[in-house]
Amino acid sequence: LDKSDLAITLEFFGVAVHDKALHATKACFDRTVKAWLAHTFSDAPRPRGVTAENASEAAYAMIVGLSTSAFFDERLGFERARALLAATLHNLAGTAVPGEGLP
């Protein structure tokens, strides 16, 4: 996503809070993305005790949170947010490269 795509997405999320039809669409979207993430994590050698479902919830929270934060916090920025997200997803999947932790 570029910044204008993210802006539209954030506006949609805000409107969906108050509009029942958009709320249902957003909830369905969230479930679909989390299911895809859980499926992806199910094939990964996750850290002990981390279920694919919990990894998907954490990953989705990181995606939404870092995207939103990068939009409003210029100190974070999109490039650093992407790097943090990639490192975190690798950690959740148990595929982090030794010595290459969070930036």
Structure write-up:
With 103 residues, the chain is mainly alpha-helical. Helices cover 73% and strands 0% of the residues. The chain contains 4 helices and no strands. The chain has helices at 3-16, 20-42, 52-72, 77-93. α1 (3-16) crosses α2 and α3 runs antiparallel to α4. The radius of gyration is 15 Å and the shape is flat. The two termini are 21 Å apart. The mean pLDDT is 90.
What tags apply to this protein structure?
103 residues; 4 helices
Q: Number of DSSP strands?
A: 0
Oligomer: single chain
H/E element order: HHHH
Alpha plus pi helix count: 4
Query: What amount of the residues lies in strands?
Result: under 5%
Shape: flat
Helix/strand/pairing class, anyone?
mainly alpha
- Taking all residues together, what is the mean pLDDT? 90
**Biggest pleated-sheet summary:** none
Helix content: over 70%
Task: List low-pLDDT spans.
Answer: none
- The radius of gyration computed from the alpha-carbon positions, rounded to a whole number of angstroms, is 15 Å
Distance between the termini: 21 Å
